Amino acid sequence: MPERIVITGAGVVSSLGSGLEEFERALYQGASGIRAGGWGGGEGEGGHPIAVADMPDFAPEQWLGNKGLRVLDRSARLLCVAAHLALKGSGLSAGESGDDGTGLGMICGTMFGGLHSIVSFDWSGLTDGPSYVNPMEFPNTVINSPAGQAAIKFKLRGINSTVCAGLASGLYAIHYGAEALRLGRARALLAGGVEELCEESVLGFRKAEVTSASGCARPFRKDGDGPVLGEGSALLVLECAATAAGRGGASAAPPWAEITGFGLAHDARHINAYDVSGRGAAAAMEQAMMAAGAGPERIGCIIAGASGSRAGDAMEARALEHVFQRRLPEIPVSAPKAAFGEVMGASGALCALAGAIAVRKGLAPPTAGVDRPIDGLRLAATPQSFEQDCVLVNAFSCDGNNAALVLRRWTG
What we know:
Blueprint: E1 5-14, E2 17-18, H1 20-28, H2 61-64, H3 74-90, E3 104-109, H4 115-127, H5 145-154, E4 160-163, H6 169-182, E5 188-195, H7 199-207, E6 232-240, H8 241-246, E7 257-266, H9 279-292, E8 299-303, H10 310-324, E9 333-334, H11 337-340, H12 347-361, E10 363-364, E11 384-385, E12 390-396, E13 401-409
Parallel strand pairs: 3-4, 3-5, 8-9, 8-12
Antiparallel strand pairs: 1-2, 1-6, 1-7, 5-6, 7-13, 10-11, 12-13
Helix pairs in contact: 3-5, 6-12, 9-10
């Protein structure tokens, strides 16, 4: 019989708040971490304000202390704080997962890694010459640097992998971690994602004209004009159910939910354009539910990947209609990117965290800013209760990566 993989804790830093309690409270209050005109003093190219869901007051010292921070860039600092919070909340430490810490590892999803570090290092080499670059900055230029730096800081000597799959990276990473545990390659894993906001990403997306010009994230709405970029990190603590049950005393952490199904499909048509048919998204959801042994009637809540992108949201809505058909208007839907923004490679992990909280509470989070009914979709500005024991989490990327995850309420 396959190992049952459970979630026993989480760490999160986001524009909604840092730490599980603060994040959950803000999420269920319908708060938004989006700041209108929040980037670079509020002016972007052409004098237009750029809204972002960032963390201008992020101070990792309060969790990590000052030692070793100088060599960490923003992505690594975000991930290290999330790791610290996840380990502390779950009662895990490297010493408890194996005599030498080899049983505890990390799987991190990201879209760009430390983009600002990469650009700064390369620019220095181009303008000043290779002899003048700072060799201390080179380690931050590889995409797996955040995961490597977190492993060094917390002595995670087990598996350490970085997954890059566009906007679906965080959800892919969680599945990768669950499979590693089932294969016996680890005893416990931190799995999720991280993404920073920097000048290069904010202005790059702005130049590509894919982000919201109005500064408002309006998932599934006809007046949606694009996503608002965000930043942050979320890590779930994954363990085999038997391992979690064997932890007693101060390190005991009861499971929140079980990971029961995952599906993926690739339907790339263009480097940054969705396949509007939704076939790949529908296939991913159907695979996830089949793997979980859960039909549409078992899904009590949908955590959507919708961000305010007209094409992306229309594609997801079409895929949901195909999969759930007549039952779709009955299922509570939450689009949390309206609250914490499009956090790119970390979005799937943040949505999975929202799904884990939802299935544990039996309560779907509200969608920030909802002020009118959405045709065929049960979004709401207040929490919605449900009785079923499964939640579906979606992450669909404009590069063709489609992923879906089914979480089931833990009852032992």
